[in-house]
Amino acid sequence: MRFSTKAIHAGQQPDPLAGAVMMPVYLTSTYVQEELGKNKGYVYGRVSNPTRTALEQNIAALENGKHGMAFGSGMAAIDAIFRLLKPGDHVILSHNVYGGTYRIGKMVWEDFGLQFEFVNTTNLTLVKKSIRKSTKMIFVETPTNPTMEVSDLSAIASLAKKHRLISVCDNTFATPYLQRPLEHGIDVVVHSLTKYLNGHSDMLGGLIVTNNAKISERLRFFQKSTGGILSPFDAWLCLRGVKTLAIRMEKHGESALHIAKWLSTQNKIKKVNYPGLPSHPQHKLAKRQMKNFGGMIAFDLGSLADAKKFLKRVKLCALAESLGGVETLISHPATMTHASIPYAQRQKIGVTDGLVRISVGLEDVDDIIDDLARALR
Length: 377
Ligand SMILES: *Cc1c(COP(=O)(O)O)cnc(C)c1O
Prior knowledge:
Layout: H1 3-9, H2 50-62, E1 67-71, H3 74-82, E2 90-94, H4 99-107, E3 115-119, H5 124-130, E4 135-141, H6 153-162, E5 166-170, H7 175-178, E6 188-192, E7 206-210, H8 213-226, H9 232-242, H10 245-263, E8 271-273, H11 283-289, E9 296-300, H12 304-313, E10 318-319, E11 329-331, H13 343-348, E12 355-359, H14 365-376
Parallel strand pairs: 2-3, 2-4, 4-5, 5-6, 10-11
Antiparallel strand pairs: 1-7, 6-7, 8-9, 9-12, 11-12
The structure holds pyridoxal-5'-phosphate.
């Protein structure tokens, strides 16, 4: 099956009771057992739920992976990934990963003996230099949030293999429609379902996909043991959202490219970060690695004061955290999503005070441009 067919059908068969075409929401905490040791594969809601299983199989199929594990949020999924490690282990991460990933590493897991080093993963030489004896994992995000840097997944995966590291890719920004990290040799893919996969800004969730049986077994054990699992209703919402992923991502990418080109002609804007522009430092790599360039753009207005004024004046673009919904959202990374990163580190990774991030929605692109143009004026 091809991508959009899988998005609609993978993991879902008509319900055997009534023939319902849509996957039912199984709202139950427990399942009756026929006799001791005999059940239908479901025994307790924390361990598994048919609606959740359908979503896990669906997203795994889209990533061309074998095993899917759903969690209550993207952060719960990322937390489970770090649990694969032991005290003393060293992790290399892209230097501008999602703010929450930085926070859980530095402010939660370092207290339990893990070590996190943030490296510019677009530069393979730097990544190689950062590998120590204790390095066990390399965690990349591409494109990164919010500066839209692109890392070479095949190169990272082969470097990780050579040094026997677990390679992880946060694929939230691209989605499996635009890029499939497992096909590049990456071991583990993680998603915030909250964003493009659900696509309608009405649930939170996280999901991990891997082909590695040992890693998946361990992650399933964490689902059951720590309980940070996805609810059946949220799994159902996401199943519904994923059905339109292919056409949504086509349109997000088309509109974003149009807006990025327009932004780069505006003299009040100092810089536009979008992998689809030839001026982007990894444009060629993005072209090779991604189907289109996605719906996220970051641009620099030069100062906090100008960013503040601009964000106050937009009307259609809603000032809010998050991304990937049908509606256009606009945000200020330095004070919102990336506020937990110290000032000096923010400057280093390009999260300047004038930087504004836009998640281009599915409205008419000319209405989005009109709104941005009015605010700029
Ligand atoms: C939002 C996000 C997360 C965290 O996901 P939640 O569902 O909000 O917990 C992780 N990585 C990226 C790239 C994100 O955008």
